[in-house]
Sequence to fold (309 residues):
Amino acid sequence: MKISTTLFLAILVAGCNQSESSNPTWSALGDKAVIYYTEDGAQTWSTRRIATNTLYDLAFLGNHYVAVGTDGMVHRTTDGGDTWSIVRLTSKASLYAIASSLVLGHGVAVGDSGIVMATVDEGETWNEQRVNDAVKLTSVATELGRTLATGVNGRVYRSIGGTSYAAVDVSTQSLHGVALDQEQNAIVVGAAGAWRSTNAGLTWEGPNVFVPLSAVAFSYAGEAIAVGPIGMIYRTTDFGNTWARISSPVTTNLHDITFSVGLWTIVGKGVVLRSSDGVSWQSSSPSIDRDIRGIEMLDNIQGIAVGPY
Fold:
C-alpha cells in the first residue's frame, strides 16, 4: 500500500512480466529508461530519457524519491526526477519492491535470496538483513514499526521493529502483493487468491477470493482493491472479508495499484487506469508498450512514470 497526501508523483516502473505459472519473472530494461511526466492527473504524458539500470519500484522517503532495481543499486532524486544519484549497496541482489514508513525518511526494500534492506535516512545508507529462507521476496508493506514481506514460496515474513523476521505460512503458491493499514489490518494476494489478517499478519484467513492477483492497496475504512491478469479488478469494503469483481476497461495484465488523495491508479502492460471511487475506471495510456510494474503517487495532479527505452 502506498498512500500519501502531499504532492502526486506517480512513478510507474516497467520491467516485470508475469509467467504462465503466475510466479513473477523479471526482464531487464537495458541501459536506458524513459521518464514520463504528467501534470493532469495521469491523463496525458510527456517523455524524457535518462540512463539507468533496471528499476522495479519506487517510494517517497522524507524528501527523496527512491527507486530500487537490479545489481544492488538504489536511485535517489531530490528534484522530481530530473536528476538521479546512485547508492551502491553492500549486496548486488536485485530489489523488487520498496515501501515507505510513516516515520519520516524510513523505508524497507526487499528482493532476491531473502534480502531485506532498511533505511532511516531517506535512502542514503542501508542496513542489510535476511529472512530465514533464501527466497525471492516480491512485495513489502510497513506501517508504525510493523513490516510484512511476501515470498514466492507462499510465506509472509513478519517483523515488529525490524530486527528479525518470522515466517508465516499462507499459501502453497507464490504471493505477489501486500497491503497493511494503521489498524493492524492486512491483505496479501497471490497466485491462488487473497487472504486477510486482523492482527498485522500474525494469523491469516482465506483465501477469500479464488483468482490470481498481483497487487493490492488500502484506501480508508476497510476499502481495498486488488488487481490481476486479463484486466481483473476486485474490491472489498470490509478489510478483505468479501470481494466483488469490478468492471474493467482493459484486458491486459495489471501489475500494481495505489491510492492517494481520493484517486486510485492502476498500472499494467502499457496502460494506466484512474478512478475516484474504485468502481468506475478510465483508461489513459502513457504511450508505453511494455509492462509498467510499479507506481507511487503523492496527489492527484503531478506524476512521473518510468519505462524502458
